[in-house]
Amino acid sequence: MTAQRFPTRILDGTTIERLRFGKGDYVHPPSGQLELRVVRRGSSQAEIDLGSGSRSVFTRPGDVLLSLPDKATRFGIVDDREVSILAIAAPNALTWVRQAGGVDLEELSPLSRKPLRAPLIARLIDRLESEADGPEPISEAIVLVILAEALRMARRLRAREGATVLSHAEILRIIAKVEAQLEKPASADELAAEVGVSRRTFGAIFKEATGLPFHQYVLQLRVERAVELLTESNLPLPQVALRCGFAHQAHMSRMVSRLKGEPPGAIRNRGRSV
Fold it and tell me: What is the DSSP secondary structure assignment for residue 111, as one 8-state letter?
C-alpha cells in the first residue's frame, strides 16, 4: 500500500511531512532515520511493529510512535489515518541525542514498543509543521527539545520497568565522566538518575562492569591520579589533594598509604630519585 503525501518541510538533515494512509497493510524497510509519528486523524485497533515485535494496539489522535533507523516497521490499519512524521537522519539524531545528555539512539528503544501519549512531543512536532518558514536555528532547537523529552521518557520507562542493564556505551560514558570530573565527581545518586535507574541498580551494574563498588572505584582513581601528580609535578601536597578530589592533605595521605603501602612524601621522593 502507498500513502498520500502532503508538502514536505526540510530542515538540516530532517524532514517533516503529513501523510494520509488508507486502510491496509504497510511494510517499511529500515529507513536510516529516527522517525517520530504523530497520529492526527483516525482511531481504531491496529497491528503495529515498530521494530520491537508486532502488537495489537488501539491508536488515536495525539499518539506518538517512534522507530529507530535500523528497524523495519509494519502498520496494519482498518481505517484511514493521517500522520505527521518527523524523520531525522541517524547522524543528526545521534548528535542531538548526545547534546540532550544521551549516549546513543538505542537509549530510545523503550519508546519503540507501542504508541505513547507524549503531549509535549506532539505539540512541538505540530509547531515544526505549521511554522514552515521559521528560522532554522529555532527549528533545530525545537528538534533538540523533542529528543530531550524522548530521552527523558525512555529513561523513566526503563526505570519503571526495573531494567537492570545499561549499554556498553553508557557504562563507558559514565566512567569517562567520573575520570574527567575527579575533583568533584557526580555522586552515584546523580549518575543513577541521569541514566534512569535506581541507585541500587546503578551500583550493581557499575560493580559488574568495573569489578569495584562505585565509591571504591572513585577512590582508586583519586589515588592513581595522586601518584601521577606526585611523581610528575611539583605541586605542593595540599594542591595535589584538592586536584584529586580529596577533602584535604591528611585524607589523601591516609588513602594513598592504605592503597599504595607508603605515604605521598615517600612516593614523591622515590619518583625524583629515578
Answer: G
CA torsion through residues 257, 188, 170, 197, sign: positive
CATH code 1.10.10.60 for 216-273: yes
- What does the block give as the cell for 176? 569517562
Residue 40 and residue 62: Cα distance in Å, rounded? Answer: 6
Instruction: Write out the three cell numbers for 202.
Output: 546503578
pLDDT digits (tens, 9 = 90+) for 208-241: 777 788 998 899 899 989 999 999 888 999 999 9
- Alpha-carbon span 10 to 13, nearest angstrom: 8
211: left (phi over 0), alpha (psi -120 to 50) or beta: left
Q: Would you state the cell numbers that stand for residue 224, as one nine-digit string?
A: 592513581
CATH of range 4-160; options 3.40.50.1000, 2.60.120.280, 3.40.50.880, 2.40.10.120 = 2.60.120.280
Q: Where are the domains of the chain?
A: 4-160, 168-211, 216-273
Look up residue 208 and give its three cell numbers.
Answer: 559488574
Fold matches, 168-211 and 216-273: yes
What is the CA angle 101-105-109, rounded to 5? 110
CA count, 13 A, side-chain hemisphere, 58: 2
Local structure of residue 13 (DSSP, 8 states): T
Whether the pTM exceeds 0.90: the reply is no
C-alpha grid cell, residue 261: 603501602
Render 180-214 in DSSP notation, one character per residue. Answer: HTTTSPPPHHHHHHHHTS-HHHHHHHHHHHHSS-H
CATH architecture of the domain 168-211 equals Orthogonal Bundle (1.10)
Instruction: Please identify every stretch of the chain with a pLDDT value under 50, giving residue numbers as ranges.
Output: 1, 164
